[in-house]
């Protein structure tokens, strides 16, 4: 009897232990199952995200292909214009290019410093810009190695003007893309008074501008600075010239070029006579997170260099 009792107790103990082990194993297996289920869910989520990213990348790739086709078309147009000897090294020999860095602080020229001051008229606009110039004048003198203050100020005003807009429409690139008529504001073309003085806020708030806007804004700022200047109308383009250090020099805020002679002088000089241009970085060529990026501004900059080399702009006028 005593033996039976001990046997029953031992049996119950073993049964309890087996049951406990079974429960532990079941819990462990359930935990593992839930873990793997969670991992599988995460993998499915990442897989779906990867598919979405793949679709997005494919879309970006298609857009890049479309942009490449557009650039090729523009390039072919330039080839047709200048003939098969477009890159003839002998024709490029007279060109002296100096590549000038903007600054280690690109915000110096970013129009955010204008917007945050809530300018309402031309005097306020110029005051804010000249204040920015005075704060950074010493740095720019050292960076560009320019001691003449009038020249330094003109280059500063050109770079500020260049950073005001993207050149032309970002989407409807074949349609008018100026401050007063563009894909965002198609109905303002008939505005009678388009002067900078009376439309400062409209000019500053626009994201789109054309060569006319760059030239008029730079002319306005040069007039405020009391620097002798004039507009230069080139077939299909307009730029500025300023009289500095005893001669006219061309400043093209659209492409951000400083020609060291007048545009007329460059166009009418002998084909083999050397001439110089200083090229500043252009915000419109920087793609990432930039509303001013335009696919064809790089091609247009090349186009202007080639116009200078091939001297194809003989019909130059100086509008008042």
SSE blueprint and pairings:
Blueprint: H1 2-82, H2 89-92, E1 95-99, H3 112-115, H4 122-144, H5 149-162, E2 166-167, H6 200-205, E3 208-209, H7 211-224, E4 229-234, E5 237-244, E6 247-252, E7 257-259, H8 263-268, E8 275-279, H9 297-310
From the 3D structure, determine the CATH topology of the largest domain: C8orf32 fold
Radius of gyration using CA atoms only: 33 Å
Q: How many domains, as an integer?
A: 2
End-to-end CA span: 127 Å
Task: Please characterize this protein's 3D structure.
With 320 residues, the protein is of the alpha/beta class. The protein has two domains: 85 residues; 224 residues, C8orf32 fold. The protein is built from nine helices and eight strands. The strands form two sheets. The protein has a six-stranded mixed sheet with strand order 1-8-7-6-5-4, covered by helices on one side. A two-stranded parallel ribbon has the order 2-3. Helix 4 packs across helix 5 and helix 5 runs antiparallel to helix 7. About 2% of the residues have low confidence.
